[in-house]
Design a protein that fits this description.
Elements (H helix, E strand, L loop, with lengths): L2 H7 L5 E6 L14 H19 L3 E5 L12 H14 L7 E4 L4 H11 L3 E4 L5 E3 L2 E3 L3 H10 L6 E5 L5 E3 L5 H12 L3 E4 L10 H10 L5 E3 L8 H5 L4 E4 L15 H16 L3
């Protein structure tokens, strides 16, 4: 159970930190005056703070490409590949990528940059803030095989942010059929938005229904609740808490990273 987690992270209950990239070329919020060099500079600084702060992995995403597309323009993944190319020599922990909200582009970026995992919405049809949001996991899985990405682990977010599942189905049945029919490498459980707490009852329900598939708590994790969340989940993905003041838009604060990592180390001692 969770063998691939052990092979990739070499720790129990890994904590993956988000490396949120500033708005990119093509995004409405891109700073054309500061240019791409400013995006790379901030990413490098935050990478250093995350790694030195003690997290187990990172997930690089275009978090500030607001408003998001469900089929991204080529410039987004191309630019992210350029940024990762600049950072790769400095990355010494496992890393993944997430091109919001585009599963195929995420896989392409992972293959091009050697990323070991991606997180995306791979299943379901939703009414969302971005319009009607459709997916096709069969097509995406075959695309992964065609481009040589079969070793890239797919983390399925089954509670997407800013969206509602159109089918009238409960979370347990969604989890069970996702595991059986779509072959996820892990399942992520989220709150309503980035930084919003993930309901522990929902997390426990998904964990009980997921069988041998690892379950990650995907939002709302901080130093004060990480032990509680990891007592249920197999790992955590953390973004907003690690920012200065716990504010989504701010830069990573190394003190907060170290505080979270310290709590995780203490929790792991209880597992020994």
């Amino acid at each position: 159970m969770n063998m691939w987690l052990d092979e990739v992270f070499h720790v129990q209950k890994p904590v993956i930190a988000m490396l949120h990239l500033s708005a990119l070329p093509g995004d409405p919020g891109f700073d054309t005056k500061a240019g791409l060099s400013a995006v790379i500079k901030r990413a490098r600084e935050e990478l250093d703070d995350l790694q030195e702060g003690g997290v187990d992995g990172i997930l690089v995403s275009n978090e500030f490409s607001l408003p998001y597309l469900t089929k991204t323009e080529p410039i987004t993944a191309i630019t992210m590949a350029r940024i990762l190319g600049e950072l790769l020599s400095s990355i010494h922990i496992p890393y993944g990528v997430n091109v919001l909200w585009d599963g195929r582009a995420s896989i392409d970026l992972a293959v091009a940059t050697g990323a070991q995992y991606v997180r995306e919405i791979f299943t379901g049809v939703y009414a969302s803030d971005f319009g009607l949001w459709d997916t096709n996991i069969g097509e995406v899985a075959r695309h992964r095989a065609r481009v040589g990405g079969s070793n890239v682990k797919l983390l399925f977010n089954i509670v997407p942010e800013s969206a509602k599942y159109l089918g009238d189905r409960d979370l347990r049945s969604i989890t069970e059929t996702t595991v059986f029919a779509t072959l996820p490498d892990a399942i992520c459980v989220s709150g309503l938005t980035a930084g919003a707490p993930t309901d522990t009852q929902s997390l426990a329900l998904v964990k009980s229904a997921a069988g041998d598939v690892p379950v990650f708590v995907n939002t709302g994790v901080g130093a004060d609740n990480v032990a509680e969340q990891l007592s249920i989940a197999d790992g955590a993905i953390v973004g907003t808490y690690l920012k200065a003041g716990g504010v989504f838009e701010n830069k990573v604060d190394r003190d907060r990273v170290e505080k979270l990592a310290s709590q995780v180390r203490e929790f792991r001692k209880s597992l020994a």
